[in-house]
Amino acid sequence: KMNTFHLLIVMFSMLSLLSLLSIPYVVATCLLLLPFLLTLHRRRHRTPSLSQSNCATIGFYHPACSSGGGGERVLWCMISILLKNRPNIRMVVYTGDGRDTFGPETSYAEGIVKHVSDHFHVDLKGGEDLWTRLSFVHVRDEYEAFKKKSSGARRFTLVMESIYHMVLAYTCLKKSTPDIFFDTTGSAFTFIIAKYLFGCKIFAYVHYPTISTDMLCLVWKRRFSYMNAGTVSSSQFITYVKMVYYILFGVLYGLVGSTADVVMVNSNWTKNHIRSLWKFSKGNTIVLYPPCDTDALESIPLKGRENMILSIGQFRPEKDHALQLKAFALFLNKKPANTLKNCNPKLVLLGSCRGPDDEDRIRDLRKLAEDLGVAPQVEFVINCPFPELRTQLSRASVGLHTMWNEHFGIGVVEMMAAGCVTVAHDSGGPKEDIIERDVGGMLASSPENYADAMNRAHLWGDADCKENVQMRKAGRERARRFSNEAFEEGFLRILSSL
């Protein structure tokens, strides 16, 4: 376990990194940290047990808990499992939502239960004592300020977002201090606040590392991407500066991450990266695949599909929806001579929209579809509930995924479970954990690769041909290892071992 001396090293390293920003930041941070450090010797760590007989409070740090992504599904499945199987555990969710998020006439508790059921098909059942076991700490004003500052940070965003998360976590923990601080957002710098200032044990479910060796390679090779701007990739000097910045940040990330008592990760890809970064961690890094509602999707017939491609994913830059549009345009331009009459392939982009930034991104994607000449054959489905998602999956012949180095890929599993011939990016979780190449799906990395895969999926012909049906069966069988039941068994097994 890290002692006070170790923590001082972390703080010193953070100040060194902050010196890359400006002197005022260093001074302000010193003043901010001074009272924290003075309280260290007064803090004692609690040692809660998660056995059936002992009581404990778990605080889930997930400010965007009402969003519709895979991370939120993991959060609510964990809470549902604890409500059902651990009556001795009380839970607090630190949320950036306001009490009136679901309308002035609806309480937040009632609204979130309905939202979770509609979007994730997850029921929060705790009997009469549900709201004594599950409560919410609202930090909307602080979270809105956090988002505003984060979006305004055009340089050193990793450092700035880490600092903002630390401040936000401190605000949350001041309002309610649990026995166990459970981070499900990947905000490792909050660990030292929870552990050393509030005496919490630290649990973490890591969806993806904040920084990785792959990111360093991307910068070093000066490859343009959503996280490596053109001004960086085109300049050798700026590339060197960014490499130093990333290496320093990686060292700090490894130190603070190593303070976690229990670490769960969503894939072997994430596990390998976390192990290489959090070198000082004394606990095991446990793979716990995220839950997918495969039962609800396996009832979808494997036949009766349209010549339709479906993409599932939040409208975030890393999802690379632009690549999907470019690949689809290339596919349409290579229309073969033996095309079935009246065959008109269609692309549906389905996902959640979190706010103004995502709205702007969707607007840009619509414009790109028009520029590529494919707008009439592209449809956007925004913030749809689970029943509509299921309907779209029952229509689609092909599922599409284009995120480079996706940590896992719940959307990929959902498409396979629903019987879509799934084409995913040849990297990360889809490559290492989910898809068995050319058996339950296909892997691609460029517009040309994706266009070829679409052709191989018979989108210009019979969507229910023998080859497609065989691949759908194999994909559905593969998806069963990522079911809700498998997640529940794994999660309870981890808790029982503590």
Automatic annotation (TrEMBL):
Q: Where is the Glycosyl transferase family domain?
A: 299-477
Q: Which UniProt keywords apply?
A: Endoplasmic reticulum, Glycosyltransferase, Membrane, Transferase, Transmembrane, Transmembrane helix
Compartments annotated for it: namely: Endoplasmic reticulum membrane
Q: What is its EC number?
A: 2.4.1.131
Question: Which enzyme class?
Answer: transferase
Q: Name one GO biological process term.
A: protein N-linked glycosylation
Q: Which pathway does this polypeptide act in?
A: Protein modification; protein glycosylation
Source organism superkingdom: Eukaryota
**Where's the ALG11 mannosyltransferase N-terminal domain?**
57-278
Q: What is its main location?
A: endoplasmic reticulum
Its GO CC terms are: endoplasmic reticulum membrane
Which Gene3D superfamilies does the record associate with it?
Glycogen Phosphorylase B (3.40.50.2000)
What are the GO MF terms of this UniProt record?
GDP-Man:Man(3)GlcNAc(2)-PP-Dol alpha-1,2-mannosyltransferase activity
Presence of keyword Cell wall biogenesis/degradation = no
Which reaction does this chain catalyze?
an alpha-D-Man-(1->3)-[alpha-D-Man-(1->6)]-beta-D-Man-(1->4)-beta-D-GlcNAc-(1->4)-alpha-D-GlcNAc-diphospho-di-trans,poly-cis-dolichol + 2 GDP-alpha-D-mannose = an alpha-D-Man-(1->2)-alpha-D-Man-(1->2)-alpha-D-Man-(1->3)-[alpha-D-Man-(1->6)]-beta-D-Man-(1->4)-beta-D-GlcNAc-(1->4)-alpha-D-GlcNAc-diphospho-di-trans,poly-cis-dolichol + 2 GDP + 2 H(+)
Classification via Pfam families: ALG11_N, Glycos_transf_1
Give the bilayer topology: Single-pass membrane protein
- Transmembrane segments annotated in the record for this chain: 6-38, 243-265
What does this protein's UniProt record list under function? GDP-Man:Man(3)GlcNAc(2)-PP-Dol alpha-1,2-mannosyltransferase that operates in the biosynthetic pathway of dolichol-linked oligosaccharides, the glycan precursors employed in protein asparagine (N)-glycosylation. The assembly of dolichol-linked oligosaccharides begins on the cytosolic side of the endoplasmic reticulum membrane and finishes in its lumen. The sequential addition of sugars to dolichol pyrophosphate produces dolichol-linked oligosaccharides containing fourteen sugars, including two GlcNAcs, nine mannoses and three glucoses.
Please give the family membership noted in the entry: Belongs to the glycosyltransferase group 1 family. Glycosyltransferase 4 subfamily.
- The name this protein goes by in its record: GDP-Man:Man(3)GlcNAc(2)-PP-Dol alpha-1,2-mannosyltransferase
Organism annotation: Corethron hystrix
